[in-house]
Amino acid sequence: MAGGKLLILGGIRSGKSEYAESLLDTASQVRYVRSE
User: Fold this and answer.
1) Phi, psi for residue 35 in degrees, rounded to 5
2) Which end of the chain is more exposed for a tag (fewer CB within 10 A), N or C?
3) For residue 18, which phi and psi values (nearest 5 degrees)?
4) What are the strands, taking DSSP E only, across 1-36?
5) Is the Cα dihedral 13, 33, 21, 6 positive or negative?
6) pLDDT digits over 1-36, tens only?
7) Cβ–Cβ under 8 Å, residues 4 and 26
8) First-to-last C-alpha distance (Å) of the chain
9) Which pLDDT score is estimated for 15?
10) What pLDDT score was predicted for residue 1?
11) Residues with Cβ < 8 Å from 9, sequence gap 6 or more?
């Protein structure tokens, strides 16, 4: 996703964090907020 914002939502243990972290490799600037 180039030049935008992405909000990842989902249920408990749905793989949200794993998916978000997989996107970090190609991102130039990242703000990553995770809650538990």
Assistant:
1) -125, 155
2) C
3) -60, -45
4) none
5) positive
6) 556 788 888 998 999 889 988 888 888 888 877 777
7) no
8) 25
9) 92
10) 52
11) 16
Residue type, 3: G
Q: Let me know how long the chain is.
A: 36
- Tokens read off for 23: 């996107």
CA dihedral 15, 18, 21, 8 (to 10 degrees): 0
Burial of 16 (0-12, 13-18, 19+ CB in 10 A): middle
For residues 12 and 36, give the distance between their C-alpha atoms in angstroms, rounded to a whole number.
Answer: 10
- Asked if 19 and 26 touch (Cβ cutoff 8 Å), the reply is no
Q: Tell me what pLDDT residue 2 has.
A: 58
